[in-house]
Amino acid sequence: MFFTRFLMAPRAPAPDRYTRKQKIFELSKYFGYRRKNCYSLAVRSVHKALQYSTHSKIKKKRYMRKMWILRLSAASREHGLKYHHFMQNLNKCNILIDRKILGQLAIYEPKTFKSLVEVARQRQQEGLLAAISPQHKVQGVFSRVTEQY
Amino acid sequence: MASRAAQQWGTFARVWYLLDANQQPPGRIAAMVSPILQGKHKPIYHPLSDVGDHVVIINTRKIAFSGEKWDRKIYYHHTGYPRGFSATKAKDVHLIDPTKIVHKAIYGMLPKTLTRRTMMQRLHLIPGQTIPEDIKANIVEQIVAPREIPKPLDQYTEEELENFPKLWHPVEDPDLR
Predict the structure, then answer these.
(1) For chain A, which residues lie within 8 Å of any Cβ of chain B, measuring from their own Cβ?
(2) Concatenated DSSP letters for B81-106?
(3) Do B43 and A107 touch (CB under 8 A)?
């Protein structure tokens, strides 16, 4: 039986004016001036605030990644490598640590981060050597082709 | 387990840098100094946490604009009152206040937020060579200036002048005279 609605009790009464307005005032408690007390102003502010909240949930991921990249750029430059060289060569070595964890390593485990920068630098040097002198077939440790699964 | 207190002190300490602006272009100085004032050279950077460092710039009187900027570059200002508009050339601004050009360059390169003024308070501009004692006591490291100062001819030794590669050798030919 699909339409079970008709078997249920009659429809609950619609909320009264006080209850309807309280739904908005609960969300506008921390606003300033009359926007927290007066319904006409509060309802507009609350709708805008909810829009900002949904958009920010999407944009937060972008802002966090930008912040991680800024921090990694600073951290790798401390060791003499630029961010894009660092990430590119780390990827070439199949080190897939993400930017969030790399940033945390740079802050809390500086020696670990330094060793990662050294790996990237060594891979960069091997790549440059291979590009400059292909006929010598320089076999580097980090640039040896590995199986990817 | 050893304490991480020393590491924490080292990470969060506010450092004082020195920069010599002798014969340096003010724009390139500003591009170098503004990330340091913001704290963007640190892995703990966040725009809301105040992690910028101090920078002391000496010899701002000796800055060197390239090209004809001393005559062509004009600083505009309006006081907000009627007839309050002024257009001053860079050379005149520099004569009135030898630190103003560097100050304006750095102020324009910082982010236009409320923290900009705080960052500018951490910038110390000295027109000459003498640094006040209390600032001198704080300075930790010197930043390498952006432009390599070319050596004037009279500072080359005779050996260097002789060994310098020549494009052509002057020929003693009596017929040419």
Answers:
(1) 67, 70-72, 74-75, 77-78, 103, 106-107, 110
(2) STT-EEEEEHHHHHHH-TTHHHHHHH
(3) yes
Place of tokens 């000459």: B128
Alpha-carbon span B110 to B121, nearest angstrom: 12
- Pull the structure tokens for residue A52: 């900002």
Question: What distance in Å separates the CA atoms of residue A96 and residue A111, rounded to the nearest whole number?
Answer: 19
Distances (CA, A) of B6 to A50, A96, B88, B138, B141: 44, 31, 51, 19, 19
CB contact under 8 A, A72 and B43: yes
Q: Which residues of B touch A67 (CB under 8 A)?
A: 46
A62-115 tens-digit pLDDT? 999 999 999 999 999 999 999 999 999 999 999 999 999 999 999 999 999 999
* C-beta atoms of A67 and B40 within 8 A: no
Alpha-carbon gap: B42 to the closest alpha carbon of chain A (Å) = 5
Q: Which residue on chain B is closest to A75 by alpha carbon? A: B43
Q: How far apart are CA B60 and CA B98, in angstroms?
A: 6
DSSP state of A142: T
Contact at CB, A74 and B11, closer than 8 angstroms: no
CA distances, B60 to each of A99, B7, B73, B78, B173 (Å):
40, 35, 17, 25, 51
Q: Indicate the pTM of the whole model.
A: 0.84
Q: State pLDDT tens for residues B41-94.
A: 999 999 999 999 999 999 999 999 999 999 999 999 999 999 999 999 999 999
Distance (Å, whole) CA B124 – CA B109: 16
The CA distances from residue B133 to A142, B27, B62, B141, in Å, are 51, 28, 22, 16
**Residue A124 contacts by C-beta under 8 Å, 6 or more apart in sequence?**
A81, A85, A89
Of A67, A77, A107, the CB nearest to B41: A77
